[in-house]
Design brief:
homotetramer; alpha/beta; 2,3-Dihydroxybiphenyl 1,2-Dioxygenase, domain 1; 2 domains; 8-stranded mixed sheet; globular
């Protein structure tokens, strides 16, 4: 009842071309907190205000991109139930044992028709947000180390069958569509924004011929002024900005898209409306898609539909 | 699964001493949108960005205060289930027929041990937020008429048995505690902040000898700069400010408390952390209660524990 | 002593292609206050917080651009002295009688080597900022009508001999250089930003083959959030944005460049450092010119050096 | 011509009760940059974005307060001229030799009828703002060390004969009155705000029986969000806040008043209108003095007229 089942994006594992360069980038520029390294050489990060042990994991690879994207569920019982529900829905799941990721419980892993690997898990060690659970302060110095988002917020996945993926998220995992872009035929979705909470989106997808592609992972900032600060820090650190600071029409959130040293796009996002499952989704049509994506430019930039990892 | 059951604070009915003065106040100073009046003479308002027909109802009375505070649930089936669950839990419920409040479905009404009347309902007419559901703008002129909060956010109730009320909210309605203030004995709660979503609070309660008292109803603003604008508008309109602009330690939200012409306190609130039900509640102790409530002054003002309606 | 002589940009007269469309644009979108129309058909505006009768004058013409750009001086004695100084410096001046522009005293008009017409004047009727001079409020509703800048801030002129123009501004009018962009030869200025106060710039110039060209007139906003609001209003009103919201490296100010219906570029500008005449100018070199102009993109856009009116 | 003569508040020397505690306070909490110590044991600070060597000097003493408050003038010639003008006006001046304060040229020192010591000087070593004069960044890490104001902005002095002091500032030093509070008699000033530039105030004075008292020195912040950040840092560091965050009616600036460990009040100030010498001063009357000083509370707090050092 109320907030149950799938809670939020929990972790994403991404591939980077040069591990140490990327560790430096995610630590000092993005301003995440490194929380551990495992035997495989993977490096774990969390946003400063997150309490669970990790939300971003990076590993060195030949090409950039996303290995998997995971959601935390509210209990082990829910994890079992959702695994059973997925199987009943015809989704092939597998179990990844507890501890395969540091400080993380057993995971249920499954492919979705966009070609991405999604995971569910119920347990990740509470390492705190650098403050006591009794009489904390409003924030700590880590809130100003680098861009310093408060949390890993959502991801935007590119792949072919977003209708099939949507069915799984809606019918099995309890997500609902908050906004969508509809193609000229008036019925096919070009893009969908899905929430499992009251966030404007916990996951989003764009129809795209290549499977399993990542458009961006997104980190939350607290204000439009923090978005300016993030843009400044990107310039100071010579980070390639894709677009921004600007606003999205979809979600109304303010945003910067930029690239990590491996070419993975990330977003620093702020605001956005609240969604609720009883609310009618907002629809965008192709004649206004530019304004829907980039509210001020009112046009897609060259990279929006083409550059993914 | 995910966001179900009780969704959010839906409406509150408040008593005012002079109806037309209050209509003017809530319309032009607070900047709510008047959406209707009923045969009983009650006046209905919504925040500009809300889509349901009403969230604040005022009626003329001899003394100010709160008649009832209601939550919207996700479906009629949930409404039936929660009614049954409440009865099974020993709560005495009654049904208010659809239409008794304008554009609102059947309500389940029940008392809680703090002496307040709570309601649940599943249906309220979607009148939109002044924009189409296709290709909307980021905001409309109503977003700048008066203080213009985006939504009715939460309420703070004062009454004697907050433990009993908490049990109902947690065990029957699916809320969870996000933060609490604990008295010197280390176990009795002076105050609790409860969420049914990922908001820092959907309802809060303070232990208080008199039953059924209202500390404040709260409206959401989008930024700290909007909080300044609200304070300016309060001054321009000679609205009595209780405290603020400032920050709360609890929830970290920024805030102004002020009074409507009848003496009902209202809050213009911004930000606040997200809560999640898997997260350990934050505890405040009495030696830091001042900082918990008013983060900058680090002391309660005279009115916080004493002035209620 | 202290703040004397030339005080600030006082008025600019611009050409527009369709007068009534432009009046509507400058009134309702930019949010200036129309203060009068004269027998020639010119329309006068001021920013809401300015006290003098006008700061922008528009007239219908076959092509857009700037007729003249004027500075207010502190007294008629100064006006006489500066006229004499200009003549002594070899500048050819003429007098425009009081009243030729509404509510404006006698003007001293002269050409500068960039091909622009500059004016000085000492008197313009104080019509107030919509508030009494006794016990005013912090702002009034006009502060939220359209983009609603607080003042006409500066202009950027394009023309060939910026060195000659600079001499006049520095040696006769008491301006000083705050920042400059130096060409690859290490000595020729591509652009200069000049102040007669402690503003980051009261006038700026870029070296350009065509004489008398206008890059933009600039209006001041009070915060980065107002810059976002301006960008939103530009989108809502389908105003063509050239670039922004972003930051300039030069001056550090935040900015949007956009075009009026006639193609004249205007800026909504915020912040910017304070300059002082005892401070060493900041120099930008050609390898960093992109970052100097557009701090986040770190590259000039296509229009910066080419689109002028 | 334009910006000449007296340029700005240059330095203030203050007395503190415990030097090292105060050094820590001004360095780490206020976030000034320590730039030197002299043989007398005085410690020198500048705000991060100031270029001159020092703007605040503290020395250990038995009681807190202000030793002297100084303005920088544009040249040695101006210094000589103003000294002569002061003497001609009947002010008794003395010369403090160059080097008596670190990296500071010769000073002209004189008493004013409020009982304060004022200084003028023309030279202070440019030590830069931590950035090169060629192709700088928008800001540096020092901009986020502690409260980190960008500059020493102004001071508010309490003393008996503010009329006499005003005469010197207006008639000799070229200041002008921007705003004033007039007592019930309609002519006597309770307080005056004076500018030598286009700032809302470079110095202010309140009529008060005791001579030579300091109400506060003020440091400039860049945004209302930085004011919130300052208030947060004051709480995190348990700094005693007098009032704020709030807005002044006078100047419209946003503000926090707080106390250093010795009881000296300081302000973190943001915004404020621009003044110009051709503009009519704004007058506040005693029935609105509360709103003039603290725009939101619309009442003076207990300490405003009584707590000075």
């Amino acid at each position: 009842m109320a907030m149950t089942g799938v809670l939020r994006p929990g972790h994403a594992q991404m591939r980077v071309l040069d591990l140490e360069e990327s560790v430096k980038f995610y630590s000092d520029v993005v301003g995440l907190v490194e929380t551990g390294r495992d035997k495989q050489g993977r490096v774990y990060f969390k946003a400063w205000d997150e309490r669970d042990h990790n939300s971003l994991i990076i590993r060195q690879a030949d090409k950039p991109g996303l290995d998997f994207f995971a959601f935390k569920v509210d209990s082990k019982a829910t994890l079992e139930k959702l695994d059973a529900d997925l199987i009943a829905f015809g989704v092939k799941t597998e179990r990844i044992p507890a501890g395969e990721l540091l400080e993380t419980g057993e995971r249920v892993r499954f492919p979705i028709p966009t070609g991405h690997v999604i995971e569910l898990y119920a347990e990740k060690t509470d390492v705190g947000n650098g403050q006591p659970y009794v009489n904390p302060e409003a924030w700590i110095p880590a809130a100003e180390h680098g861009i310093a988002p408060t949390r890993f917020d959502h991801g935007l996945l590119y792949g072919p069958d977003i209708d099939g993926a949507r069915e799984i998220f809606e019918k099995v995992l309890g997500f609902y569509v908050v906004e969508r872009i509809v193609l000229e035929d008036g019925k096919t979705d070009l893009a969908i924004w899905l929430s499992c909470s009251i966030k404007a989106h916990d996951i989003a997808m764009v129809r795209h011929p290549e499977p399993g592609k990542l458009h961006h992972v997104s980190f939350l900032l607290e204000s439009w002024e923090k978005v300016l600060r993030a843009a400044d820090l990107m310039s100071i650190n010579r980070v390639k900005i894709d677009i921004g600071p600007t606003r999205h029409g979809v979600t109304r959130g303010t945003t910067i898209y930029a690239f990590d040293p491996s070419g993975n796009r990330f977003e620093t996002f702020c605001g956005g409306t609240s969604g609720y499952p009883d609310q009618q989704p907002i629809k965008w049509t192709m004649e206004d898609v530019g304004r829907g994506i980039f509210y001020h430019d009112r046009a897609l930039n060259d990279t929006f539909l083409s550059v993914v990892t």
